[in-house]
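Consider the following assembly input.
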Amino acid sequence: MAAELPGLAIEKHFYDVVVVGAGGAGLRAAIEAHEQGARTAIVCKSLLGKAHTVMAEGGIAASMGNVYPEDNWQVHFRDTMRGGKMLNHWRMAQLHAQEAPDRVRELEDWGALFDRTPAGLISQRDFGGHRFARLAHVGDRTGLELIRTLQQRAVQLGIDVFMECTVTKLLTDDEHGMVGAFGYRRESGEFIVWQSPAVILATGGIGKSYKVTSNSWEYSGDGHSLALKAGATLVNMEFVQFHPTGMVWPLSVKGLLITESVRGEGGVLKNSEGKRFMFDYIPEYFKAETADNEAEADRWYDDHSNNRRPPELLPRDEVARAINSEVKAGRGSPHGGVFLDIASRRTAEDIKRRLPSMYHQFKELAEVDITKEPMEVGPTCHYVMGGVEVEPDTAAAKIRGLYAAGEVAGGMHGSNRLGGNSLSDLLVFGRRAGASAASHAAEQKATTPRVTDEALAAARTAALAPLERQGGENPYTIHAELQESMNALVGIIRTESELQQALDKIASLKQRIQNLSVEGKRRYNPGWHLALDLPNMLTVSECIAKAALERHESRGGHTRDDHPTPSPEWGALNLICSEADGSVSLTRQPLPQMPDDLATLFKETPA
Amino acid sequence: MTYQAKLRVWRGDAEGGGLRDYTVEVNEGEVVLDIIHRLQATQAGDLAVRWNCKAGKCGSCSAEINGRPRLLCLTRMGDFDENEVVTITPMRTFPVIRDLVTDVSYNYEKAASIPGFVPREKGPDGVHRMQQVDVERSQEFRKCIECFLCQDVCHVVRDHEDNKKVYAGPRFLMRIAELDMHPLDNLDRRKVAQENFGLGMCNITKCCSEVCPEGIHITDNALIPLKERVVDRKYDPLTWLGAKIGRRPHP
Amino acid sequence: MTTTAPAPTGTGAPGRARIAARHLRTDTWWVQPAITVAVLVSFIIYSTIRAFEDAHYFVEPYISPFYSPCITKSCQGDTFPELFSGPAFLTPAIYILILPLGFRLTCYYYRKAYYRSFWLSPPACAVAEPHTTYTGETRFPLIFQNIHRYFFIAGLALNVVLTYDAILGFRDEHGEWGHMGLGTLILLGNAALLWLYSLSCHSCRHIVGGKINSFSKHPVRYQFWQVVSKLNGSHMKYAWVSLFGVALTDFYIRLLATNAFSDPRFF
């Protein structure tokens, strides 16, 4: 093979830190790494500013106390842990709650324009599972504001951005850990390699393995899979969040997100009988802080201190399961969802002002005027709680020089994420990952690691295979089959037999992708791109299904019909995925022990 | 409900190409992007199209449909007659990469050349205080999803390639307006707007506002107000005199 | 350049998708500019004839807006001080019309309308313009579009005069106050439309408050700005309606002055 190597004319770059992904976490990480003096590059699959973060609507959770001065990090920490059913890594939840307010405020120094309180401070809104109004927001397009602010900051700092490049392999060696990343330019199909001692994964989630999802094509689990293949581990992969309110009609937009702010702003869920059914689904765990009658629930919007919160604002897993049950019981809407009604609860003017994107979205895509009619909604695959197992303070993965932040990192959200906690998560841990990657790179400078030509040649051959094969499987067909299976068999409600079926299916698809072939050439060829994303989706799907099969209990984003309750033994365990020889294996790992001063926060009963 | 639509899609690259005819199934409620995806999955696996969110929020799937710059994901097939031939081409202001995908680097270069945000000092209590009314104008411009349809439709660069050197286009003139109106920004951007970014090239014919999928009033709320601010700075003898005497700084 | 290369203007620059058509629009995009041309040309013809006619612009107690304020010694009626006598070929209208003409010519809305429909730059969105070069409003003479605000201020002064003319309409033909006819209504309506057109102007919006960055520190100007912004949303509508208004008002007075019609008096 070596004889062929001189022909390997591959574009090469040298950096201290390479950030894979240009969503909120990636941009925040890059900004920090740059400010710490590291030569930094951002590599992203799409154009800059298009990442999935733009889809976040509701807001950024941070206990700034601008609306409720009694809010503080301890309350936020407690909400986060309880929302995650105590499976969160306590240290991540603590850092997150402590640092989120500063991360939000610094956005303002970079030009962000949040909605204001009458006192001129950043306004904060209510969201499911948060005891106080805590989400800094801009109408219902907070994600766009966040990404634009970070994007403009990164551009102002002059950070190099490699747009429309996909990383297909992390390059490692035994001596240094990370030595770089290999990928291709989507535009030209040419290969490219970034040599660097530190790589930060900020690639987001895995939703494209599901049929009904709020996620875009980019969410093919690249980071999860790259990390696994490089020798790192994944944690909590069985926990997938189904957002309770996705659009269900028209089919073309099925799964598209309807922000939780609709409920935060007063929207309620009703079944086909017109009943506010959420009152029937208040779990024991949240009874003390949830209103059990409509009158109290309605009073809460104006007075949080003397009333308990409406059950529509329970954490997402609870609401998604409730909707699922109502539909199964035959009390669903015509297109298989339930009704989300804000029209009868707020004035048309208020709705248009507070929820402009939602108004626009329904008007344009479904021809529904949400100021006059209720919306039809149903659960949609939204977020994966699981991800790369990282060290909380440094965001470092198990491989030297590899870091992960944002959705691709695991542990922070336990078994279920609260709305608003993802934007704050990516700011807090994006910054931490950037800082630690930069300092790691600084230590490594003396021994600049080298990528070997053998490694490049192997990566190149693997990537080109589908283009060179004739008459094999169509990647679009395999993708559709995977989505179908994951949706039907590894969805909100799971059983042993279905999970086993899913694993069988995944195994057969893994065989079939060995024989993928795509038409056309290398220049901007979506068929080829999909063919290279498919192995990642399959790997991640396998992790999810295996972990889901193993965990014999129901908790947060993992509900087993055959094990319907949480179990204390499982509540003390994380499942860790690792990979060897192309197959995923699981190990059980005890949950990290929370120190006493934090543990006491859970002994007090909430007001 | 389901019917076979007639599509003409531009296929090719910088070397050449042309409109090709396809017949594709359409179901109720679908948008043009759904049809393009079906075409990709069943008839043309390598058909290049850029897209992300499919919800009108990311601004990736910009193209021209029946000659009008639009987002593929926000154009419903129901807007067309079932017998109508729907023609889809890439944006015609930017170099084509392949099929419906264009090279939009012009926009990223302009974005990088605009002087960044320079905040004033925080208040005595360590925070920035602003009222809702202070932020609303710039907030409108920050709704921009950077689909670059306004850049595509603007005749200043669409019809005159040479002008790309001297003209930033509606999106980035709006960005300058956003910063100039930003209550915390400390830079006077009026001179550069006119001299470096070509505000004077704009003849306010409003196509940018017409095609904006976010409904931002680019011309009325950003470009014209910015032109008026430039007049204050450059063309208004009274304001000029006032500034010379040192009485009226930029508000 | 090869023979297959697309036209040099428009979207034919190297590297772009090679599509020969100037546009691929399937709708009737040319209707709008055609209507604009038809209406503006009609108005220009009518107003030119009237401006040079130098007659039939005054009938007690009304004066045509084309001739007001009437400032030369050759004026009919006595609605305004007669300041000087100019050369005979310059009618009293000429001195005055330069102001509303300048105001409308530099108006942000009319600029759009005539750049599109007369200069075809562009004729419609995504339809290629015929010109090979383009410099916009950066050079003489179009750089003078930037003095719009001075015409706006002059226009305001003119509106005061036309409002005054309308008030004079509350007299009868002998100069007695307390009367009113259809002409009074028309003059009032004309003045009102002109006020709406002027106050909805983009320069006005800038002057009253648009130039401020922190509205909360200037609550009164913010109020003004909000009102003007609201009017500004209908600036195009006011631009057209007030144009028709002026022409129709003048035409009505001409009808009266030529005794083709007699003014219905209400009281």
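Chain A touches chain C through one residue (CB under 8 Å). Ask yourself how this observation constrains the way the partners meet.
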